[in-house]
């Protein structure tokens, strides 16, 4: 019998929903590159329901228990007294979502001798010390593509929200005002602006595609160049380094994974390369940016705005400066966990679990680490090493 530990975010403060705003989800057959959506043998949940919080259990309990395994679901993940710590010693599978990450540091992996699979219900496995997973032969897998389009939609929303000054204008209306001048003194059109993405993977390329109809000039930098046909179709300008791209952009959006090569790539020095008044959108990972350098750039006006949904650590301590810095459009980490996305990644998590328990290969596109090395999509997009340093700070968060 195996123990499967599933770390999920808390239920809504007013309880697990009994009704929903909508009755169905649109049907999506496949992703644009032809990759199929998750293909588990079955699912035991209603698509469109809240699966990512504790009571939703990613719809997995019936399946896991039907195999005779123990299934533990908890939101308690940080600090020495957390549930996660208690179950480390005999967990074979640890499932976690990036929105509420179960940080699997080298120390924790060392104290989890039976751990075989660290499964990310979502995309981005930087909450796992990949080097330690490599060293201890732990497989790391994620549900590639499951929420890439969800995030891209969020990026577009945030670009428009910041540039057009949406949130402060909404606040004026909600508070009974009609202060048009206050609203528009920081409001611009995106038309004609230059927008650049660091990484043109599944999310980055989708962002470029979605922004093209706004008649923005589109730029990107990536370790691998896109096919010429795509560059032509979208009239893209490729930059060999991100540093060369920053200075020409009015809007920069970060869409690369967090790994040692990208950690703190936005810092005081690189921010000097940005145009004064640029907007920075980061829905990739908080630690791509030096926390205090972002605050300074907003205070001096180097950046006109910063928006995103990713922080470090998560949950962000209650006094994290990004909660209150000027001209920010931050939300908690939500872009990849819409109800639509949850349906896809819950199914993908089930598919990976089925492979694990039946001894079938996990799809290459889901693999980050396997057999003591980076594998699959991980070998393409990540570098070896660890980006979990400082994650113990997540323990400081207190429910507001
Ligand atoms: P993909 O794997 O499709 O794309 C990642 C891209 O990043 C690849 O094109 C890769 O390049 C590129 N890349 C890696 N390192 C560098 C680097 N040093 N410089 C420039 N480009 C680099 O993943 P997705 O687009 O689906 O997701 C990207 C990231 O977004 C995830 O890793 C995750 O951190 C974050 N994310 C956030 C979510 C949220 O809810 N906020 C949800 C989903 C993802 P190449 O492969 O060419 O080497």
From TrEMBL:
Physiological role: Catalyzes the NAD(+)-dependent oxidation of formate to carbon dioxide. Formate oxidation is the final step in the methanol oxidation pathway in methylotrophic microorganisms. Has a role in the detoxification of exogenous formate in non-methylotrophic organisms.
Record's protein name: Formate dehydrogenase
BP GO terms, sorted: formate catabolic process
Catalytically driven reaction(s): formate + NAD(+) = CO2 + NADH
Gene3D superfamilies, per database record: NAD(P)-binding Rossmann-like Domain
Species for this entry: Paracoccus sulfuroxidans
UniProt region (Disordered), positions on chain: 380-400
Protein's UniProt keywords contain Cell membrane: no
Keyword terms: Cytoplasm, NAD, Oxidoreductase
Annotated EC: 1.17.1.9
Residues at which NAD(+) binds: 148, 202-203, 222, 257-261, 283, 309, 333-336, 381
Site (Important for catalytic activity): 285, 333
GO molecular function, one term: NAD binding
Residue positions binding substrate: 123, 147
Compartments in which it is found: Cytoplasm
Keyword Transport: no
Family membership noted in the UniProt record: Belongs to the D-isomer specific 2-hydroxyacid dehydrogenase family. FDH subfamily.
């Amino acid at each position: 019998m195996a123990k499967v530990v599933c770390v999920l975010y808390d239920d809504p403060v007013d309880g697990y929903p009994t009704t929903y705003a909508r009755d169905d989800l649109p049907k999506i057959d496949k992703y644009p590159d032809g990759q199929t959506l998750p293909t588990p043998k079955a699912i035991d949940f209603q698509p469109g329901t809240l699966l990512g919080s504790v009571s939703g259990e990613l719809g997995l309990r019936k399946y896991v228990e039907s195999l005779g395994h123990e299934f533990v679901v908890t939101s308690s993940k940080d600090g020495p007294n957390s549930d996660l710590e208690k179950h480390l010693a005999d967990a074979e599978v640890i499932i976690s979502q990036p929105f509420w990450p179960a940080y699997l540091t080298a120390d924790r992996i060392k104290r989890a001798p039976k751990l075989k699979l660290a499964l990310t219900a979502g995309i981005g496995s930087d909450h796992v010390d990949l080097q330690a997973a490599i060293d201890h032969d732990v497989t790391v897998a994620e549900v590639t593509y499951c929420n890439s389009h969800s995030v891209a939609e969020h990026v577009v929303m945030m670009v428009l929200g910041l540039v057009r000054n949406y949130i402060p204008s909404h606040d004026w209306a909600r508070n009974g005002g009609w202060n048009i001048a206050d609203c528009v003194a920081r409001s611009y059109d995106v038309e004609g602006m230059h927008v650049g993405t660091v990484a043109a993977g599944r999310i980055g390329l989708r962002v470029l595609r979605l922004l093209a109809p706004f008649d923005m000039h589109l730029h990107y930098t990536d370790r691998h160049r896109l096919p010429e046909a795509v560059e032509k179709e979208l009239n893209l300008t490729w930059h060999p380094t991100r540093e060369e791209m920053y200075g020409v952009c009015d809007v920069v959006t970060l869409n690369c994974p967090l790994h040692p090569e990208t950690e703190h790539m936005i810092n005081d020095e690189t921010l000097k390369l940005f145009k004064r008044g640029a907007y920075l959108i980061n829905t990739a990972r908080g630690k791509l940016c030096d926390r205090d350098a972002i605050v300074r750039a907003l205070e001096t006006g180097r950046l006109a705005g910063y928006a995103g949904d990713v922080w470090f650590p998560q949950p962000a301590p209650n006094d994290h400066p990004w909660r209150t810095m000027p001209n920010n459009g931050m939300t908690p980490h939500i872009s990849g966990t819409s109800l639509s996305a949850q349906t896809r990644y819950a199914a993908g998590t089930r598919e990976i679990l089925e492979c694990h328990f039946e001894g079938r290969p996990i799809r290459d596109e889901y693999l980050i680490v396997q057999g003591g090395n980076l594998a699959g999509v991980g070998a393409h997009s990540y570098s070896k090493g660890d980006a979990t340093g400082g994650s113990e700070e997540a323990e400081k968060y207190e429910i507001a």
